[in-house]
Design goal:
By secondary structure, the protein is an all-alpha fold. It has a domain at 55-187. 71% of the residues lie in helices and 0% in strands. It is built from eleven helices and no strands. The protein has helices spanning 2-6, 10-15, 28-31, 40-47, 49-52, 58-61, 63-82, 85-112, 120-147, 155-184, 192-195. Helix 7 packs antiparallel against helix 8 (85-112) and helix 9 (120-147) runs antiparallel to helix 10 (155-184). The longest helix is centred in the C-terminal third of the chain and has 30 residues, at 155-184. The relative contact order is 0.11. The model is unreliable at 1-24 (pLDDT under 50).
Length: 199
């Protein structure tokens, strides 16, 4: 045909600087004319295998309130030491963020309780849950203390706020310790059926 005569050969295209693509291998689905559809679960397992393998989503949320609350204590200490109002404001905002972040951590933690077996792990869970419920309640109270004020906090209330943040940090530390005990000693939240295949 006429177009076959004027069509450039592959060798001439390569000499002119064009790169030729290699033809894609034919798959059974491409031979039949349809592409294989991957399910959302397969896509999730390929992109985020760690997230796909989680038995509960509690670990995704627990670190945010801990970091925000400890950051609030740090900035409040610095703000009172240097008498710096912007640092105190930062402490208050970090407290708010930690309190909001504690809500999904609390909800996912309550759902994750079902995977904890009776025995020593259950006892550690009881302490962990109590400490974190008290922490969340104290954080809500401290947020109301600084959030519902009119004007600046008095010196007495500012000291009360700092003392509350210290107690909050202690409660969070104790609760987080029991959470680590649940995971690293008792193996809660671990898919043992797949973990034992590595041996």
């Amino acid at each position: 045909m006429w177009w076959a005569i004027s069509r450039p050969r592959p060798s001439s295209l390569v000499r002119k600087g064009f790169r030729l693509r290699r033809p894609l291998p034919m798959t059974p689905s491409s031979r039949t004319g349809g592409a294989r559809q991957t399910s959302p679960e397969e896509t999730m397992e390929t992109l985020l295998p760690g997230l796909h393998g989680m038995l509960n989503y509690h670990p995704l949320f627990v670190h945010f309130p801990i970091a925000f609350w400890l950051g609030a204590l740090l900035f409040e200490l610095l703000g009172q030491w240097r008498n710096c109002e912007p640092w105190r404001t930062t402490a208050e905002r970090l407290l708010y963020l930690g309190t909001f972040a504690a809500l999904p951590a609390l909800v996912t933690g309550l759902f994750a309780e079902a995977a904890v077996p009776p025995g020593p792990a259950w006892q550690a869970l009881q302490f962990h849950r109590l400490a974190m419920l008290l922490s969340t309640g104290l954080a809500v109270a401290l947020s109301m203390l600084v959030g519902l004020r009119r004007g600046e906090l008095s010196t007495a209330r500012r000291r009360l706020f700092l003392a509350g943040l210290v107690v909050l940090a202690v409660l969070v530390g104790l609760g987080a310790d029991r959470g680590a005990l649940l995971v690293y000693r008792y193996g809660t939240g671990v898919n043992w059926a797949e973990a034992q295949q590595q041996e």
